[in-house]
């Protein structure tokens, strides 16, 4: 594996990976940001060029200073040759197996090689699989303030009734000052390392929220370094009022206008959320969303 650096080559690779979506989405999204200012200081590795079979994106070495920061120490992988991946992952210059890290991808077939190499290196693997959602063209719907009820009926997201009407709170762009609130409610967060990660995402990528009457966001959604929309949450007292619907429309419009790829993953048991996404125009992708958190024995 070697680092692909030329901007022209990265563009060619990006266009090639688009043909392999959704399986290539994690790498495809990361390369989008790498081509555009590269705020997370990531790099792209390929096994050959231009006839590549495996692509890995990872932080540059100077970024992975904290041995236990799996938020920063994240690798995204796409391969056309899963049977050769074990050999790739075994190379010490490809992955640092001495620190805590995570691998993310949209191919379940990555798992066999990850488990084999991790076992040989006495590394514990915690595996998570969720449902992957992508969207081509969101459903057409009105967005004026007087059409909120019609909008909710059309999409059947956050249904509105007379006792639980949508209150027209303003949409906002999130910034680093909101990191603490978002981190407190993020299922994968709630710690100091995740707080730093959330802050960095908010400084580098778009995040949308709804500002409530108390002067704090009551609903939000944030993009991360592989163009995935994550950390979605609505304060319980403001649920079923159309707030996430409003964020979804604003965010999708913003991203589509700028031709920024995006996608989401949802836990398999979150049937209501999955149904809402499908009504909005998102599609389930059978390949799924996969994460392997790898922890060396010394940190277990």
From TrEMBL:
One of its GO terms (cellular component) is mitochondrion. InterPro entries: Acyl_CoA_acyltransferase, Glycine_N-acyltransferase, Glycine_N-acyltransferase_C, Glycine_N-acyltransferase_N. Residues 208-296 form the Glycine N-acyltransferase C-terminal domain. Residues 1-206 form the Glycine N-acyltransferase N-terminal domain. Its EC number is 2.3.1.-. It holds the Pfam family Gly_acyl_tr_C. Keywords: Acyltransferase, Transferase. GO terms for molecular function: glycine N-acyltransferase activity. Belongs to the glycine N-acyltransferase family. This is Glycine N-acyltransferase-like protein. It comes from Tupaia chinensis (Chinese tree shrew).
